[in-house]
Amino acid sequence: MADLLERRYKTLGPYSPLFYAQPLEFVRAERVWLTAADGQRYLDGYNNVPHVGHAHPRVVEAIAQQAGTLNIHTRYLNHRVVDYAESLLATLDAPLDRIIFTNSGSESNDLALRIANQHSGARGLLISDFSYHGHTQALAVATTGLVAHEGLGAHVRPIRVPDLDAADASRPEAEVLASSLAEVDAAIASLQEAGHGVAAVLFDSLFSTEGLNRVPSGYVAGLAKRVRTAGGLVIGDEVQSGFGRTGRSFWGHQNHGIVPDLVTMGKPMGNGHPIGAVALSAALLDEFGPRNMYFNTFGGNPVSAAAGQAVLDVLAEEGLVERAASGAAGIRAALEGLRRDHPWIGPAKGEGLFFGFDVYDRPVGEAGAVPDPGRTKAIVEAMRARNVLISRIGRTDSVLKMRPPLAIEPGEVGILVETLADSLAEVEALSRT
Amino acid sequence: MADLLERRYKTLGPYSPLFYAQPLEFVRAERVWLTAADGQRYLDGYNNVPHVGHAHPRVVEAIAQQAGTLNIHTRYLNHRVVDYAESLLATLDAPLDRIIFTNSGSESNDLALRIANQHSGARGLLISDFSYHGHTQALAVATTGLVAHEGLGAHVRPIRVPDLDAADASRPEAEVLASSLAEVDAAIASLQEAGHGVAAVLFDSLFSTEGLNRVPSGYVAGLAKRVRTAGGLVIGDEVQSGFGRTGRSFWGHQNHGIVPDLVTMGKPMGNGHPIGAVALSAALLDEFGPRNMYFNTFGGNPVSAAAGQAVLDVLAEEGLVERAASGAAGIRAALEGLRRDHPWIGPAKGEGLFFGFDVYDRPVGEAGAVPDPGRTKAIVEAMRARNVLISRIGRTDSVLKMRPPLAIEPGEVGILVETLADSLAEVEALSRT
């Protein structure tokens, strides 16, 4: 493995990120279990791309069968892409009735910004602070969550997203809502004063990178309303929150009671096969389409469509969204139990099978308690030592992040929670010494 | 098929481009033959993505085998991506010794621009006039070859690429070279005067979209030298010209005797599987890497790497680059023969298995002869009526474009050329009536 790491450095370079102080080399995987080069098996509590389970035979067979039959662009007709577009649109609410296929979430968000800029005639963009939406040049200037040398664009305003479980836990929800929306108003006013206007707000319904913030009821709807009033579009980035991840709904935005103007997709869409999409209304496409020759060579090819269709089919047939919802209820209860034993962890955050909690240096609520990234990292490494993969997120990297494939079964959720209990106990014992 | 077209309009919309007045619906393909829904077979003289042949069993097997084993991002170690990176780097010249994997040519070119902008501290970009390099926002403002509502960026200068077979056919090559490079100097000066500086030149070694321009010897090297002197980087877009397409070399830039600072790849790389890459030097990556957290979720996954490796293996084992070179010689001779019968077509253009010719309204060289897009379109449709797929390119859509998979065999090249002879005769006869 040391040799492989060295060879990797000499080809991909040393900057491409790797998990863990001692990186893991995986050689195969099945459902929610990864096998390392040394033969050890790891429970996957982290990966959201293999959505219906690693190497799901239905998805593999769909890819193999279609790749062996025909893989071609959309300048010829093929029923696969149309069948899949219909299936995908059936999961979305009116007026979203058109799909543009891409190859990644980054391509999708970049395209959504193009559409919003052209629609509004403006460039101003609202993002939530400490979010990330992709690696293209247009998106690199629209993040405060990842390091990009370009820096924040002059036309971008990050807005602080409230969190009733952390920073705003001590304030009444109505007050948090009012002050947060006042911050949105101020950001919009700032964009307008600077002459950028308002093109869009781009947000992830789970506020994942931000730390799974629990926002006040009505916050997202209020944000969307304000942006639309200012002439901008609402872009729902469903790369992380979509395809049933939250259990409660198929799409994250549905949990907030809104329908975005543009819905962007990626990661879990093809269970690892590179595919993304932008959903929009015919009216919006009728604006963009005639004014731009948009063509995506790989976008909508029949193999990608077959992979995407297989994911939708498996989600339905195996009842994975429902399973995510019921699994989540159990997890939430278990995490509350862990809080009693370890008062230095915050309340359960997230939705469905994207969950976690804030980690503090002392009991939550105690004077001087602050987020503790070191302790959070120690939990992640303790879990790894017990062969369970998880990670951490948030502004200070002090929110534990658990996000298993939806294929995880109740007994495996049990292993995840029990291992977490052991790891918390170990880290707590260590911090006492 | 009418029903499928209607369903497509209601899901993908009517703007997604389709070939032919009566679009073709394909249901399967093998090597260089596509089968339509009505059972008719078409010889593929157009598609460069299925590079080693449609549904090549080696590539299909590699994808199926790896997808059934493991598909994961690069935050864990996996030997597949490293093996493939080594194979790919072995085809490139020093100092190109690092690879960043992406999912498409668009992602690759967008990333190359980010790297060049950061390296130079400038934004100014030279492109060849009537070129196209991708669909992201940063690339939409850098094209004059496709309609993008954004319009050309203030920091972009399109330079007219000479063509010794068409616009510049009557001038001495040395004079064309001097005047063309003087235009480069002027564009650089214009960027500097406007305060944009020079970040890069981005070009396709075949000048495909432009119309397969035959440039004077030393033109590309002179262009590269001038950009570097001005502090910019040379980005070789090998999405069309790479992987042996030109027969003469594995990479198009090698035909011009230069090594770009950044080489971008896409289309044929995975024979249809969505994969792209940027090759660069360790020195350049050492600048970009520490200042940017670049992570591409699907980029470098083991399934994409397996597809890419299979393409390299098949190219080598089946001697496809050599076959492209020998096939090209025969095609060139045949096209010269056709010129004698049809003096209204220009000399054979392009390299290897990307070839074509200009189509005029009257014999080449006759007073008042101008490019004839209508006649070019008629040839494309006449070929389609004879079950051979080709297309057209260039500023006036009057350059016939033929670009079969490299897997095409001599007998099939014969069918392509004979069908072209018949189609030219038909179109000539029609134009006499």
Describe the structure.
The structure is a homodimer of 433-residue chains. Chain A is of the alpha/beta class and 433 residues long. The first copy, chain A, has two domains: 2-52 and 319-432, Aspartate Aminotransferase, domain 1 (Alpha-Beta Complex); 57-317, 3-Layer(aba) Sandwich (Aspartate Aminotransferase, domain 2). Chain A has twelve helices and 15 strands. Chain A has helices at residues 2-9, 57-67, 79-89, 105-120, 137-140, 173-193, 219-229, 282-291, 302-317, 320-341, 373-385, 410-432, and strands spanning 26-30, 33-36, 41-44, 98-102, 125-128, 156-159, 200-204, 233-237, 262-265, 276-280, 349-351, 354-358, 388-389, 391-393, 399-402. In chain A, the strands form three sheets. The first copy, chain A, has a seven-stranded mixed beta sheet, sandwiched between helices. A four-stranded mixed beta sheet of chain A has the order 1-2-3-13. In chain A, helix 3 (79-89) packs parallel to helix 9. The two termini of chain A are 34 Å apart. The mean pLDDT of chain A is 97. At the A-B interface, helix 1, strand 1, helix 2, helix 3 and strand 4 of A face helix 1, strand 1, helix 2, helix 3 and strand 4 of B.
